[in-house]
Amino acid sequence: MNFMSTNQPKKPSKSDRTRAQILDAARQLFAEHGYDGASIRDIAALASIDPAMVIRYFRSKDELFARAALLDLQLPATQVTDRASIGDAIIRRFLRTWENSPSATGMVILLRSAASNEFAAEKVRDVFATQVRPVVAPFGDPADAGRRAGLVASQLLGLATCRYLLRLPPVVALSHEEIIRDVGPVLQRYATGAD
Amino acid sequence: MNFMSTNQPKKPSKSDRTRAQILDAARQLFAEHGYDGASIRDIAALASIDPAMVIRYFRSKDELFARAALLDLQLPATQVTDRASIGDAIIRRFLRTWENSPSATGMVILLRSAASNEFAAEKVRDVFATQVRPVVAPFGDPADAGRRAGLVASQLLGLATCRYLLRLPPVVALSHEEIIRDVGPVLQRYATGAD
DNA sequence: AATAAAAGTCACCGATCGTTGACAAATGGA
DNA sequence: TCCATTTGTCAACGATCGGTGACTTTTATT
Question: Chain B contact for A135, CB < 8 A?
Answer without folding.
Answer: no
